[in-house]
UniProtKB/TrEMBL annotation:
It comes from the Bacteria. Residues 21-134 form the Metallo-beta-lactamase domain. This is MBL fold metallo-hydrolase. InterPro entries: DHPS-like_MBL-fold, Metallo-B-lactamas, Metallo-beta-lactamase_dom, RibonucZ/Hydroxyglut_hydro.
């Protein structure tokens, strides 16, 4: 498997750009998929610099409906038909972050009609190509991974605007079946990276998990949450962990100490061969 980081919060070499967000190209056997597009055209500029061709993609998977994972969609060439885009329908809800008194919009701009793409709503679990699964419906199972506070959905009806907590129902995982085992990709793991892994193992129980590349949403987590996450990951005996994006430096540093060479910090421009 070949993994190319087109965008991540950090960059490690000259001539490339980085922004808060994530965009990754995954190549396995004769298939090539793009997961997430960051928040702007940075992923396209970096792809050109790196010599990564996006014209031959088999599909685009959008992990959830936040601007830093889907914003780049509007920069794709609208003059030609895009490959299928796999996304949860609830990703298009009006998403906000903040407190009850001070919220700001973090969802997508516009609607999928402007993408000129074959948008395919994914639902529970779906094999989009041989050995490539998009998995949604991630339940809360662990006692330490709870719905993150401060995320909201705005609903409008005939009487005005109302707010509800965002349960992150649009979050989905890409699971790729390889000879070494399952390679999992998660954009932000708002429902918990361990919960996500457990969900993937539920859908594909006959394959061990070989690698996890994920934004783990631990940047603002307390010490207990980070400790419990590391303990659970250690118990799962996953050979390769790749914390990115919203994992945060503190949590990623502790993972590097706990897992040694099994933990890889991937930055914009890096190419990983698993």
């Amino acid at each position: 498997m070949k993994i190319t980081i087109l965008n991540e919060n950090t960059v490690y070499r000259q001539g490339l750009l980085a922004e808060h967000g994530l965009s990754v190209v995954i190549e396995e056997r004769d298939r090539k998929f793009l997961m997430d597009t960051g928040q702007s055209d940075v992923f396209l500029k970096n792809a050109k610099t790196l010599g990564v061709h996006l014209e031959d993609l088999d599909g685009i998977i959008l992990s959830h409906g936040h601007y830093d994972h889907c914003g780049g969609m509007e920069y794709l060439d609208g003059s030609r038909r895009l490959p299928p885009v796999y996304i949860q329908k609830s990703a298009f809800e009006r998403k906000y972050s903040g407190t009850q008194k001070d919220r700001h919009y973090i969802g997508m701009s516009g609607s999928h009609e402007s993408w000129k793409a074959d948008v395919r709503f994914t639902g529970d679990a779906r094999e989009i190509a041989p050995g490539f699964w998009v998995i949604g419906n991630i339940p809360y199972r662990t006692n330490f991974e709870e719905r993150p506070a401060g995320f909201w959905i705005q609903d409008k009806n005939g009487t005005g605007t109302c707010w509800r907590a965002d349960e992150m129902e649009d979050e989905q995982i890409l699971a790729v079946c390889t000879k070494k085992g399952l390679c999992l990709f998660m954009g932000c793991s708002h429902r918990g990276v361990v919960n996500g892994i457990l969900r993937a193992k539920e859908v594909l129980p006959d394959m061990p998990v070989y690698s996890v590349l994920a934004g783990m949403h631990l940047r603002s987590a307390g010490e207990k949450r980070i400790t419990d996450t590391i303990r659970s990951l250690r118990d799962m005996e996953i050979p390769v962990l790749i914390p990115v994006h919203c994992t945060g430096k503190r949590a990623a540093g502790r993972m590097a100490s706990a897992f040694g060479d099994s933990c890889i910090w991937a930055e914009t421009g890096q190419v990983l061969e698993l």
